[in-house]
Amino acid sequence: MAGTQPQLELCTGAYRARQTAGSLVVFAEGIHPTSGFNTFLSCETASPDLPVFSLWHVPPSGPVMQVATPFSVWCAFQTLRTVSRALVKDANGTHEIPVEGAAGAARTDRGPLSF
Questions:
Q1: How many whole angstroms separate alpha carbon 49 and alpha carbon 47?
Q2: Does residue 3 belong to any structural domain of this protein?
Q3: Beta strands in the chain (DSSP E)
Q4: Tens place of pLDDT for every residue, the chain, 115 residues?
Q5: Does residue 2 lie in a domain region?
Q6: Number of domains in the chain
Q7: Pick from 43, 40, 39, 28: nearest CA to 77
Q8: Is residue 53 part of a domain?
């Protein structure tokens, strides 16, 4: 007897992106209403100029704990080019994310400037 296929759903979260030597890393964080969700970021395109990611989850299929459960996931995209922004698609639409560490990118740490 074959099991049922897990149902993928677009998820929602808060995003940030960071460029390092040779790669762009996109991070997503959020909270699920219960335990048991499997959450991941997927790279949708291989465009080095504007990479597009999407945030997905597979809802739980069995018993769960009725407790808010945080998640934190990341996905790396290899590139030697400087990337200033990335797009993330989720259940609320498409979000443009500024890239930390990219030339000309805005500071996102909100800490004091040090020289």
A1: 5
A2: no
A3: 9-10, 14-20, 23-32, 38-43, 52-58, 69-78, 85-90, 93-100
A4: 456 777 999 999 999 999 998 899 999 999 999 999 999 999 998 677 899 999 999 999 999 999 999 999 999 988 889 999 999 999 999 999 999 986 644 444 444 433 3
A5: no
A6: 1
A7: 43
A8: yes
Q: Which residue has the tokens 């993330």?
A: 88
Tokens of 32: 């699920």
Determine the Cα–Cα distance for residues 22 and 24; give it in Å rounded to an integer: 7
Q: Calculate the CA 20 to chain-centre distance.
A: 16
The range of the structural domain enclosing residue 18 comes to: 9-100
1 falls within a domain: no
CA 86 to chain centre: 10
Is 87 in contact with 77 (CB distance < 8 Å)? no
What whole-number distance in Å separates Cα of residue 8 and Cα of residue 110? 35
Q: What is the pLDDT of residue 34?
A: 97
